[in-house]
């Protein structure tokens, strides 16, 4: 079946949707050439991210095999991952002023 | 790999053959633009500074103005000054003259005001344009080409498709002895450790880390969250969550080649290879710095869509977002969304981009050129006084 999400490295905790996906649908992807599927708990728009495993509050969220920020709450596999549950650790003058 | 370019008396090559009508300050900006619009074959820069600046900020503007004139795409220069500005027209003229590039100067105060300077400047520009029209393109090697890499209006397709495509083309140029520049220091924040690992010397690695540390410190000093400025609201709508995520996608433009060194804004590289240029993440200021640094051609990835061109160097636009290509087909040169759909590989699209670079280097107009986009904005590091 045609894949509708991309995982960049096998260390990543998220996938990127390559089409608009709806809650309840299966996100289909390859991880290291092996097919993998995740049932979506939210709508995830084209280009947006979904968790492919559970991520604890305060854990680094991994894409490209590197941290893209910290989870601000526990995130379950299949949840939409964006500014509502991840925050940057960098350039945070608001926290250091 | 070869293309057809212009050979200059001083050993440079160019891929365009412009007369640059060069305003030294905001006060002569309009007269310079009117001369350039009157005479076929001219280009001009939008210089809204050049006076009442101090210290390193003043020096940066003056260096950018001079180095822009030294870009190989410029065949001759008409300096247009007011006469009393901080970026002194006589100094700019002398620095260009030293390099052997044909140059003339007019000042509004010294040549009869707006109308006198317009008439005299236009006559100089006309003579240069006619001389340059005699020059024919000759075969040049890709090792002589300088590429500038830019991304603007990014979304997640930028990191997945268009930036890695640019990385393939950049690697091909660098591996064949050419030069490539990656700018936008802000967009290394969170990815600097990945970039620094590729530096060929410990000094270059330290310089990369220092650039990013200094940039982040400037942002932090404002006491605000960088989010909102970086990533932009449009980046966030496109799926990018943090500056770290944006940066990790941005750096794919530089491919896998080793990094030769670090350049200050608007500095001209002394060697060939892949360079990092210190610049803001704002596209127009970033490309202005790379054009002053000698970039003959820019490749610009966009996910959300951008119309931006450059006054000196042709800009090839590429997107990995099919919807964006369909919304802005008059602005975007190359659609690489087939990578996202799994129908084409990144190396396939990298080769397609390299082919387009060689065509544009040989004279094919980019979409931004055909629409007359000549964006130009000099980076400021201090207030005007």
TrEMBL record, chain A:
| Gene Ontology molecular functions | lyase activity
**Which keywords appear in this protein's UniProt record, sorted alphabetically?**
Lyase
Every SAF domain range = 12-87
CDD domains per the record?
Answer: SAF_AH_GD
Cite a single Pfam family from the UniProt record: SAF
User: Its Gene Ontology biological processes?
Assistant: D-galacturonate catabolic process
Check the record and name the PANTHER family matching this protein: ALTRONATE DEHYDRATASE (PTHR30536:SF5), ALTRONATE/GALACTARATE DEHYDRATASE (PTHR30536)
**Protein name in the entry:** SAF domain-containing protein
Automatic annotation (TrEMBL), chain B:
Q: Name one GO biological process term.
A: D-galacturonate catabolic process
Top-level taxon in the UniProt lineage: Bacteria
- Keyword annotations from UniProtKB, A to Z: Lyase
Q: Where is the D-galactarate/Altronate dehydratase C-terminal domain?
A: 142-383
Q: Does the keyword Lyase apply?
A: yes
Annotated signal sequence is: none
D-galactarate/Altronate dehydratase second domain ranges (all copies): 5-132
Q: Name one Pfam family in it.
A: GD_AH_C
Q: GO molecular function, one example?
A: lyase activity
| Protein family (similarity comment) | Belongs to the UxaA family.
Matching entries from PANTHER family are given as: ALTRONATE DEHYDRATASE (PTHR30536:SF5), ALTRONATE/GALACTARATE DEHYDRATASE (PTHR30536)
Its recorded name reads Galactarate dehydratase
Q: Which organism is it from?
A: Shewanella mangrovi
